Amino acid sequence: MRASRTLLGKWFKGVSRKTLLAASLQVMVIGLLLLGFARNTLSDSMFLSAQAVLSLVYFFLLVVEFRRVTGREFKAYFLFFAGVWLFAQAAWFFQSQVLLAQFNYSVWLLAGLIAFFAWFRLFFSKRVVDATVIVCDGQLAAVHVEFDLLAGVSAGNYVVSCQTPCKRGAQVKVGVKPFLFLTTPEKVIIQ
Q1: From which residue to which does any coiled coil extend (predicted)?
Q2: Helix/strand/coil for 159
Q3: Phi and psi at residue 189, to the nearest 5°
Q4: How far apart are CA 133 and CA 190, in angstroms?
Q5: DSSP 3-state helix, strand, coil percentages of the chain (rounded to 5)?
């Protein structure tokens, strides 16, 4: 399902629904973080109400909408985005506590976030991603890849190696080359 069928389709033409939902969740996490930093300027009831509303919308998008577009991979996406939400909540909670010095709190939170990303990549990473062939000459192929968190690939067009010619518009599996937290499509492995 393409995002062009939604209300925002005029602005995000050609963007997949999965990419749009992931970007929406990232923007909402940033909003939760900014709200956490503004906690001291808001009344408790206003702050908690805003946190509740943002969190409910966040989990609605995650549980209802992401389930529709991810299918079998929903569990991994849920664990990732729920974990990121927990870190956003921990950020404002520990900031408001006097248990940790400001520097120690930031270092521990950053270390925990990096450890969470490493754990996620270790247990949920994929070595292949689905792609659509744009053009192929038998040795190189230009493919379009949609956003895939599990493979660590951003949406876009990539040039990959190809052993045999592929038809334009064909759906292929493309192997990805991991490098730390980033991966790039490397070669067509299944046609």
Answers
A1: none
A2: strand
A3: -115, -30
A4: 12
A5: 55, 25, 20
Query: Which range of residues forms the domain containing residue 171?
Result: 128-190
pTM, full prediction: 0.80
113 and 139 belong to one structural domain: no
CA 92 – CA 94 distance, rounded (Å):
6
Q: Which of 101, 124, 147 is the last residue of a domain?
A: 124
| 109 & 28 share domain | yes
Q: Supply the mean pLDDT for the chain.
A: 83
Q: How far apart are CA 87 and CA 138, in angstroms?
A: 46
**Last residue of a domain, which of 67, 98, 124?**
124
pLDDT score of 8 more than 60: no
* Of the candidates 187, 154, 170, the residue with the CA atom closest to the CA atom of residue 15: 154
How far apart CA 97 and CA 115 sit, in angstroms, is 23
More confident residue, 191 or 58: 58
User: What size, in residues, is the chain?
Assistant: 191
Q: For residue 78, what pLDDT is reported? A: 94
CATH number of residue 147's parent domain = 2.40.50
